[in-house]
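Z., the sequence and structure:
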Amino acid sequence: MVNGKLFRCLLAVPLIAAALLAGAPSASAASLTRIPNFGANPSNLQMHLYVPNTVKPRPAVLVAVHYCTGSGPDFYTNTEFARLADRYGFIVIYPSVTRASKCFDVASPQALRHDGGSDPVGIVSMVRYVLQRYNADAGRVYATGHSSGGMMTNVLLGDYPDVFRAGAAFAGVPFGCFATTNGSEWNSQCANGQIIKSPQQWGNLVRGAYPGYTGPKPRMQLWHGTNDDVLRYPNFGEEIKQWTNVAGIGQTPATTDRPQPNWIRTRYTVGGTVQVEGISVQGGPHNVLVNGMAQYAIDFFGLSR
């Protein structure tokens, strides 16, 4: 059930800036296609797929996850990921929520366990469908999203480190921060940035989602606006604590720079590889995903090489 607080916050999440429309695919590009019957789908998600006219041999796969009140086609239209897929030859999956809130489930106990159920299971079914049908590279599967999609990016990497090599979460919260046990989709404490844990506690939440997993840890890129009034800015620091701990590294960045005048980027490395990257957008609102940022995510994944 959607409570009043969630409804107000949904209204506070308009479509991503209209300026992004300039980056949408041209009429001559490949089209977005609805895929039915893609596999296990306990929460009745819809799957939309964008396959460029030219893809690389054994292409990479990107899952691009929409914000609350949105849809896969909305995220396709209002972000640059499909245009970048045309340029670099990867495939993009756009999941869509069908429940009334149009928010992804990042709160239920089922959603926060490997193969536990709900939306993550359906999204991973979409990935497996693409890997099989398009001979895609299982070693190059990535996730990104904004707001509810940024939260789901954290959940997907926590639940399925065996599936996702890296993620880029825009205006999200840490894995497990939104957890509820009463069926609510909304956690006000987390949204307001009031849930503070140690790096070890945050890391334990991720490790507890898939007990016994000993494989490679996914890399994570995190974005947040300092003026986010929906998912407050303290969540950014808590995400950094979590994913650096999962990676087994400390809280001191290896480098700090400013790719743009109002961005502060911190990088945390393992053996010379950037394992966690945080970009703080000074003065940035909740709708932090704007024109040009998607390229940084694609670069972080290594898809532009």
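The CA atoms of residues 171 and 224 lie 5 Å apart. The first helix runs from residue 4 to 11.

Let me know what you think.
H.
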